[in-house]
Amino acid sequence: MARGIGIGDVVAITATVRRRVTEDRVSVSIPSYNFPHSIRDSTKVKHGQQIELTGEITRIDDEGGKVTVDMGPLVTVDLDKVRLVEKYRPSSIADVHCL
User: Fold this and answer.
1) Residue 34 lies inside a defined structural domain of this protein
2) Is residue 11 domain-resident?
3) Cα separation of 72 and 2, whole Å?
4) Is the residue at 52 inside a domain?
C-alpha cells in the first residue's frame, strides 16, 4: 500500500480553474490528468484560482504510481498529487443497529 493510502480512503486533489464553461460550471486542470474536466460551481471561482476536489480511491497502481479517484467520473492521477483527507474505516457489527 503506497503512502498509507488505501482503497476507500477519501483524498483531495488540488485543481486549477481554467475558465467558466457555463453559468454554473467551470473547466479545471487536474495535475497529471491529461483530459478536460469540468465541475459545478456555485461559489463563483476565478480563472487561475486553486480549488480542492475530493473523492474516494477506487484503484491503486503501485507499480505505475497512480491512483484512481471517484469524483463523479473516475479520474486517474499520480499518487503524489493526492492528499489523504479521511481513512476508510469499515463498519463493525457494533455500528449496526437492529430494529
Assistant:
1) yes
2) yes
3) 23
4) yes
Question: For the chain, what percent of residues have pLDDT higher than 90?
Answer: 75
- pTM (two decimals): 0.82
Quick one: pLDDT at residue 4?
A: 85
The answer to whether position 93 is within a domain reads no
Domain interval for residue 27: 2-86
pLDDT of 65-96, one tens digit each?
999 999 989 999 999 999 999 999 887 765 55
Q: What radius of gyration do the chain's Cα atoms show?
A: 16
Contact yes or no for 86/10 (Cβ under 8 A): yes
Tally of domains in the chain? 1
Closest by CA to 15, choosing from 1, 27, 3, 30, is: 30
Question: What DSSP assignment string belongs to 10-70?
Answer: EEEEEEEEEEEEETTEEEEE-TT--S-EEEE-SS---TT-EEEEEEEEEEEETTTTEEEEE
